[in-house]
Structures are given as C-alpha cells and as structure tokens.
Amino acid sequence: MEPPGQVPDRPHPLSPQPSQFAFLPDVRTHSGVPVSARPPQPHRPPASPYALPAVLALAALLVILVAGSAFAEPPAKPPTLDQVLGNITTWITGIIAAVATTFLTIGGLRYLLAGGDPGEVQKAKTALQSAGIGYMIAILAPVILDILKGLVGAT
Q1: CB proximity list for 106: less than 8 A, separation 6 or greater
Q2: Cα–Cα dist 90/96, whole Å
Q3: Which helix (H) or strand (E) holds 135?
Q4: Are 127 and 105 within 8 A, CB to CB?
Q5: Residue 117 in 3-state DSSP?
Q6: Cβ atoms 110, 120 nearer than 8 A
Q7: Does the predicted model carry a pTM greater than 0.85?
Q8: Are 35 and 29 spatial neighbours (Cβ–Cβ below 8 Å)?
Q9: Chain CA centroid to CA 113, Å
Q10: Where are the domains of the chain?
Q11: Can you list the alpha helix ranges (DSSP code H) found in 47-80?
Q12: Taking the chain, what is the end-to-end CA distance rounded to the nearest angstrom?
C-alpha cells in the first residue's frame, strides 16, 4: 500500500497501451520519428512578452510620423469675427430647431394620448404652438442677426 499523498506509477485505465496501436505512426511528430530520436535543437531563449506590443507601437508611431508629415498643411488663419458669428448662429439655430422638434413630439403624443380630456388637449395644443414658435425663431434667427449686424455696422 502507498503512503497517503503519493500517486502510484500505474497508467490510467483509459490511456492506450503501446501494443494496441503499433500499426500507427508515432503521433508525437509529423514524421513519425519519436521526439527522443531527434537531434538536439539549439537553445533559443523565449521571446519577451513585450516584444509584440513594442513592435506594434513602433509601427504605429512610424505610420503617424509619416502620415503626419505627408499631409501637413500650413497653419490656418484665425477665423474672422463674421465667421465666428456665423458659426454661433448655426449652432443656436440647430439647438432651437432640436428643442422645437422635442416640443412638437411631446405635443403630438399628448394630443394622441389625451383621450378626450380637455386639460390634456389644451396642454398638447400649447406644446404644438411652442414648437411652431420655435421653428419660426430658428428660421428667422439668421435674418434677425443680419438686421442687427446692419444696425451696428451703420453707426
């Protein structure tokens, strides 16, 4: 009997016995030559775990440097005051249109879900009116800004 904790030197009952598969080539190699019969291979140190990330980082840096220098443009002039005001007007118009669309959606849903309740119908109509006013302001914002520019420029 073995002492506790030690494993006996018996093969596993399901492992194949050498005599059962003697007609097949050795499955340890492609050539059929057992590993122990091969000539010794020269020692090669294992690759560093940082080798692949370092090569990829170096390649990415090289691509960025080459692409950056190939497409480099001369520095652009700073925008003028008219360009800045035009950009601000575009942004404000977009925000007003988005808010108006939100009110239009809320008003439409309230009107559909009112179910004949006069209070809900009135709230829905108010939201739809607010959406209409918002769209009118969004459409007229560039015109109003041009009028204000003309008044400031005339003085």
Answers
A1: 127
A2: 10
A3: helix 118-154
A4: no
A5: coil
A6: yes
A7: no
A8: yes
A9: 38
A10: 81-150
A11: 51-70
A12: 112
> Helix 118-154 crosses helix 81-113 at what angle (to 10 degrees)?
170
Which of 105, 103, 122 minimizes the C-alpha distance to 114? 122
Place of tokens 């709230």: 123
The answer to whether 108 and 128 have CB atoms below 8 angstroms apart is yes
Tokens found for residue 56: 């990829």
C-beta atoms surrounding 100 within 10 Å: 20
What's the rounded Cα separation, in Å, for the pair 54 and 47? 12
Residue 114 CB-half CA count within 13 A: 16
Residue with tokens 């204000």: 148
Note the pLDDT of residue 39: 64
Retrieve residue 79's tokens: 């925008």
Distance, in Å, from the CA atom of 29 to the CA atom of 6, rounded to the nearest integer, reads 32
DSSP 8-class letter at 29: S
* pLDDT digits 0-9 by tens, 12-50: 666 655 555 555 555 555 555 555 555 666 766 666 666
Structure tokens at 101: 């669309």
